Amino acid sequence: MNRMRSMLFSPANNPKMYLKAPIFKPDCILFDLEDSVAFTEKDAARDLLCEAVKVLDFGSSDVCVRVNSLRTPFCEKDIKAIVPAGIRFIRLAMCESRDDVVQISQMLSEAEKENGIEEGSVKVQCSIETVKGVLNARDTVSGSDRVVSLSFGAEDYTRSLGTKRTREGRELMYARMYLPVVAAERGISAIDTVWSAIEDMEGLADEAALAANYGFTGKSCIHPNQIEVIHSAFMPTAEDVEHARKVIAALEDAKAKGEGVFVVDGKMVDEPVIQRARKVLMQIGE
Asked: What is the pTM of this model?
């Protein structure tokens, strides 16, 4: 999978979105079989999704499917249908424990075996959406090597917390500070929650910048107009790039001279600084 700065929600029961979503070039298109699809439309949406992914080209965008929670009668049906259709990345809604990850991994293994697919091919993003999910997150993501990412869902989280979501987002601070730490320890990506005020682009920019500073690597979104703002927030600044280039150039110079210690902009450079510089340059394709 490519980097995921943006994950654009697309209801799986909306035929137009299969054609429109790739035009906007999100890093990942998130076809939704859960909240955006009514109970009476679950089967039809799943069938439409499976047929679409078999024949359509989504360009530079990765594809992910949000499957229904394990605590619904739809999750197993989702897995049995989308794995043979070619889906290799899922977001597990309402993921709350290590047991959830073990269970979904077993379902995926069975589907892979039944369809002659190499075991472990389908990767999982754990959607952390409740108080229990946040508190268990560190243990949850250790449940399977399939887990390559976690995502945060603020609407259900605030509901389970017994509060409401505000523009400032202070009620989300604990989860927002904890989940990127969990992801960083595990070496996986962390995707921040959606910004639902579609016309408030200033608010989106502020929240995306805050999420990036907390350590999130990307953000879910619900409208194509949000993609550019999100991409900008999760890209290094010009100053970051300039400093990274200086660090790598100084590193190469030190190696050529046989020196183990060197200075950039008056500061000693150690291994964490070098690793960050390499990461910055990797983000811009250098």
From this structure: 0.89
